[in-house]
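lol forgot to send this yesterday, sorry. struct tokens for the thing we talked abt
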């Protein structure tokens, strides 16, 4: 069985990959990215702001993204952009996620063939 902490780690890795691939298309703010992740995963992943924004902060600290405050008449939004370091990190994340998904698919096939 997958431990809760391991599951949280994988959720963050998958979210980071979604965020970086989304930002590779252009700058965006957190809520827009959360909506897009929810849409693209058909609701399988619904980013919680309490998890999304800390992850974006960590990604900013590690140099994968940069953020700046959009100053307008309405409430200010933090707009994020991907960095060169972030672009370079995408293939590593793809490799990690692919390996994990392959493992999960193998396990599902084993269970399916044994029980169903």
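and heres what i got for the seq, position by position
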């Amino acid at each position: 069985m997958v431990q809760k902490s391991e599951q949280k780690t994988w959720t963050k890795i998958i979210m980071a990959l979604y965020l970086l691939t989304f930002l590779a298309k252009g700058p965006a703010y957190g809520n827009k990215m959360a909506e897009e992740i929810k849409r693209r995963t058909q609701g399988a992943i619904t980013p919680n702001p309490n998890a999304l924004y800390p992850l974006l902060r960590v990604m900013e600290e590690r140099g994968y993204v940069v953020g700046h405050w959009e100053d307008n008449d309405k409430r200010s939004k933090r707009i994020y952009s991907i960095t060169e370091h972030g672009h370079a990190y995408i293939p590593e994340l793809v490799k990690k996620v692919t390996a994990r998904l392959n493992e999960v698919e193998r396990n599902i096939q084993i269970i399916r063939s044994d029980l169903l």
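The helical segments are 4-23, 30-40, 49-61, 84-115. anyway ping me if u want another try
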